[in-house]
User: Fold these one by one.
Assistant:
Number 1:
Amino acid sequence: MSFNWSDYLALAVQLHTVPLISQEASDRTAISRAYYAAFNLTADRLGTKGEWRRAHGPQDHKELADLVKRYGRTTKGRVGHTLERLYYNRCKADYDGDIEQPSKLAEASILMAKEITASLPPI
């Protein structure tokens, strides 16, 4: 049975709402999980439709966002731009030791991930 990537988004919401250890650690983790929920759900949907194939490497993140952005001003194109911004947030949360307002960044990241997942076509 395949992992349900939506569970990462639910975990992000829970971590942001009910922090473990510290609010900042929970918010940083929430940002990361929100991104990976959106990334993997997008990748799976496009993969199922034969529009994209994972290389299973670090280049996948940019390639997927770039592919979806090519759809221009459509809903699908907006998903690419939002996914790119969410990836940027994830990198900040995972690698930047001093980020401003991590709680607001977590909230924004969760909203972006929800927008992405809501706009994906069903499999």
Number 2:
Amino acid sequence: MQSVSSFNTLHNEALSLGSIQHTCVRRHITHPKLCKMKISVQSVHFHADSKLLEFVEKKVSRLERLFDKIVEAEVYLKVQDTGAKVKEKVTEIRLRIPGNSSLVDKRTGATFESTVTSAVETLKRQLVRHKTKNNDNRSSERPTHLATVEVAPLENDMEEAE
């Protein structure tokens, strides 16, 4: 998991170099109650094709099944030249959730598909941890004990039982 500062550094680097060749902001229109999250995909140092963008959107939108209060997902796809024959692919995903919180994961690999998949899996675990943490905080605010009251039978009920 990467810090928010490294995520901002990548974003600022891309903006300062003017190297963002493709910015795609997609909003699901199928059913507004089912998918509220805005997904933005930015490719740095290359032009992403529509198949890759659809793959990223499909994978990231599945996170909403776990936590339906995700406000926005920002995905950065970057090609990094390491001097080898095959350039490394870097994927960084940032989820904005209510309460001024962000979940961030950065992955490097041979293909964007593998890096997106592993980043989404990591974010799933983070979302589950975030949900359980919030549910534990809420349950601690509720009273943990319930008062029990024993009701004595009325005299009329006792006479009928005999």
